[in-house]
């Protein structure tokens, strides 16, 4: 690859060094005018006023028509200056005013013909181009296009009426100036609109992110509440029942009381173990650890017999009946089925009391698993206080919703009944 010699690189370096300060200064001006919008308008208006006064004062006396700068000319320039200064409020009025001032200054002789030679555009006319830029920037494209066409047509009338020597050049210059000004304004408006759309999109995405985060927090709170309820309510209910039974048997049959107390200790230890496991898992998940299902297997529906036996030991007269051919269950359905039976038996123990009869029916169908748990409400209701706000039923409904199942609960004679239908297809993705 060819390289530049040191002799040829030196001029380029000097040019770059000369251009860099100008570029930096221009960027500083743009930042300042963006922060103070009125500063750009005031600068344009001041430049317009000074340029018009200089051009009017330097007009040739031999021009036809010619008129020396007087109070009338100054007032016309002041009108155009005020219009440019207020262009942000009404760009259409600014375009109309600057166009009228340009026509008046030219027709009255304050500004001579072709003050810039071949350019054919006076400074008053340039003020109208600035107003066109402002209108294109601050109005929609349809309206600004209409204003552009109207400005070119109306601006051509004075040129034809005044009988200029080079009307074609002046008309072409006028049209070119207006089109260029409109193009710059339209490009700026499009860029501003695009930037605003990006900003709106970012704000919308941020709002959606907050909504999703809040939903995730609510879902996590519900999950924690379900698991805490399943662990605490189940074990504490068994502990209270065993403690009450041991108290009754303590003086009459110490051996039975001792067995109940031993079981009570085992239940308490199991509760502590479950609670520690739950807290450990929640802490590890909060720190980015793997989900607890991967580290601590959950109970499964295959342990239904053991679960039923636990409640039988607590005093419930549980009868378990199965129908249909057992089939493998998806993980979500498996855990949900186990928790539904566990919560139903816990509620029967708490509300119907020890000694109540509970019927648990498990039916495997072609595409669903149906669970029915009914108690007769005839047990010793003093064993466990029936307080609570329905967290267990809420948790059951949430679990059912997650696997797209059905749940029905309600009174059944003197007792209570729970019916759950779980799809065998699995949990919701």
UniProtKB/TrEMBL annotation:
Keywords: ATP-binding, Coiled coil, Kinase, Membrane, Nucleotide-binding, Phosphoprotein, Transferase, Transmembrane, Transmembrane helix, Two-component regulatory system. Residues 332-426 form the Histidine kinase/HSP90-like ATPase domain. It catalyses: ATP + protein L-histidine = ADP + protein N-phospho-L-histidine. It comes from the Bacteria. GO terms for molecular function: ATP binding; phosphorelay sensor kinase activity; protein dimerization activity. This is histidine kinase. InterPro entries: HATPase_C_sf (IPR036890), HATPase_dom (IPR003594), Sensor_HK_TwoCompSys (IPR050482), Sig_transdc_His_kin_sub3_dim/P (IPR011712). GO terms for cellular component: membrane. CDD domains: HATPase_UhpB-NarQ-NarX-like (cd16917). Its EC number is 2.7.13.3. SMART domains: HATPase_c. The chain crosses the membrane at residues 68-86, 93-110, 116-135, 147-165, 171-187. The keyword Iron does not apply. Residues 195-222 form a coiled coil. Gene3D superfamilies: 1.20.5.1930, Histidine kinase-like ATPase, C-terminal domain (3.30.565.10).
